[in-house]
Amino acid sequence: MIANLRYRLFFGQALVLTALAVTGIGFMLTQHSQPQPVSAVSGGPEMGISITSGAVCSGQPAVCDVPAEGMFTVSIDAVIIPEEGYHFVVADLDFATFEHEASEDGAGAGTCDDGVDNGGDDVADRRDPDCVRVDLTYLPGDLDAESLWDGCNSRSSQPARFELAPGLLEIGCFGSLPPIPLSMHTGPLFLMTFSCSEAGSVTTVKLLPPEHMVQAIGSVYMHLDGFTTQPKLNSLTVNCIGDTTPPTSTPMATSVPTPTTTPLPIAGDVNCDGVLDSRDAALVLQFTAGLLAELACANLADMNGDGMVNSIDALGILQRIAGTTANS
Question: Does the model's pTM come out above 0.70?
């Protein structure tokens, strides 16, 4: 019902205005007030999506890596159009993950897929925020700038955009004033910008066909007589990856040790106090007399270098203090 009302709102505007201008066409529009699907899923028309910037994609269906919090651009393209052309176009883009086993409005596990509005808030299943996880963020831009089809943004056709449910957008070009020209445009139809809002998330982005559970118009080519052509549709996968840029290494502040001066040993300083004085001479004499078992710095006691420590060395210490040199 929602899709039918929205379809009537836009498509009906074109019907009434065109009927006023051309009686014959107006009669056909009256006869086809409801869109009649013409399927092309087995071959023929195609509508596709691709990421044109901000991602690295590979494979088919495409798998695209996007840095977390990075922006990327999704293009909705008229890949192959109906042979007879088209007058309007609608695309339903789903970029959420439907969690079938989730609980809708606290009604219990699995109620997101039971077709019932469990919470009484007029939205059920895929339309209910409890039933979806949205890891991509749509960054809405100027609607005219998002619409690249040459038949849009003109006197006869205008773009429109709706949020049908969390993570589900409907964007299209609808007629407003006659004459509504036939289009043979191929290539980009709409360009939309998104960002990754959750690192490590994986999202399948897809175009939805008509008769989806959200009751959307679906991704279709529309004709002035009320018929729609359902094209083949594709999908792609967006991996929101963490930042793979190696972190810039900041050198740690290195403390430069303050050089410490180690005092040179002083010949005769037998008590190792760093000072040559009479106490050192007295200690040598005590050691020589057998009153001391050892000297703290015995290696400094041999003043004349004869290999022995005796009273001559004590004299040498006193002479060094007095400024003279002991004779060996």
Answer: no
